[in-house]
């Protein structure tokens, strides 16, 4: 069996891509699935969030063929959870790959040998639609779109959907949107409620029922190098990511 290959995509930064990648991954790991998180962002936030070490061979090293992908995989302190670290080197990759043949398929080439070693492989993308993200879109089967419940959300979503559908028509016919996920939700904010309602009405089948609440504990956990379910098992974020994991299992099966 090949792993479910998911990416977390939004050209906007600060919408909860990395937080979702880490905590959905950890929720699935806690349910007994073997999960690999790949940090494909030069900021390396995902790596630190699960106590990964970005000095070791990184995603960059594996993508440019400096090391085998197996050499880049690290065991985390958390059961069933593995990571390929990100590093600043990735910042130059967009430019380095531009003149290469098959420049959109370097990530696929790097990750293909380990496809059947995990139940889930997640790639955390940078906040842009450049060549790095294109590599992620060419490798993946499913996209999760995390978004904040704010005014320009719809515009951003439309651009993202057009991009995904053009990739599907050209480079990767297997690419599908698994779902749109609302993050950092505050019940009391009227605007949050309106945005959730509008987008849910517009894309009834795409929006996940689970909504991730705003929680200070979710923002703190990365600085301790822990996913939320380890850092604070009774937190609202732990419950939300567990419920998202159940929905994701339903949708992929
Ligand atoms: P992205 O990867 O899209 O740039 P992040 O996942 O890094 O976004 O989130 C941006 C910031 O918001 C981070 O500091 C993160 O800790 C914080 N954050 C993410 N989700 C939540 C949440 N549900 N509640 C509170 N803070 C959050
Ligand atoms: Mg991020």
UniProtKB/TrEMBL annotation:
<feature type="domain" description="AAA">
    <location>
        <begin position="7"/>
        <end position="177"/>
    </location>
</feature>
<protein>
    <submittedName>
        <fullName>ParA family protein</fullName>
    </submittedName>
</protein>
<dbReference type="InterPro" id="IPR027417">
    <property type="entry name" value="P-loop_NTPase"/>
</dbReference>
<dbReference type="InterPro" id="IPR025669">
    <property type="entry name" value="AAA_dom"/>
</dbReference>
<dbReference type="InterPro" id="IPR050678">
    <property type="entry name" value="DNA_Partitioning_ATPase"/>
</dbReference>
<dbReference type="Pfam" id="PF13614">
    <property type="entry name" value="AAA_31"/>
</dbReference>
């Amino acid at each position: 069996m090949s792993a479910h290959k998911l990416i977390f995509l939004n050209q906007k930064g600060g919408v909860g891509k990395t937080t979702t990648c880490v905590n959905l991954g950890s929720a699935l790991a806690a349910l007994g699935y073997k999960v690999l998180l790949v940090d494909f962002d030069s900021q390396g936030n995902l790596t630190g969030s699960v106590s990964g070490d970005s000095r070791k061979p990184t995603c960059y090293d594996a993508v440019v063929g400096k090391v085998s992908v197996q050499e880049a995989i690290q065991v985390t302190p958390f059961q069933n959870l593995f990571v390929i670290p990100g590093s600043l080197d990735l910042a130059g990759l967009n430019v380095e790959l531009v003149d290469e043949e098959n420049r959109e398929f370097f990530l696929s080439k790097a990750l293909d040998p380990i496809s059947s070693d995990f139940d889930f492989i997640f790639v955390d993308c940078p906040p842009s639609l450049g060549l790095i993200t294109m590599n992620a879109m060419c490798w993946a089967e499913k996209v999760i779109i995390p978004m904040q419940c704010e005014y320009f959300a719809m515009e951003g979503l439309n651009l993202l959907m057009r991009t995904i559908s053009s990739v599907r028509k050209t480079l990767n016919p297997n690419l599908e949107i698994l779902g749109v996920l609302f993050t950092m939700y505050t019940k009391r904010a009227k605007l949050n409620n309106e945005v959730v309602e509008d987008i849910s009405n517009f894309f009834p089948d795409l929006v996940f029922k689970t909504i991730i609440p705003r929680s200070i504990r979710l923002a703190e956990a990365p600085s301790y190098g822990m996913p939320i379910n380890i850092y604070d098992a009774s937190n609202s974020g732990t419950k939300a990511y567990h419920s998202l994991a159940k929905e994701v299992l339903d949708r992929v099966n």
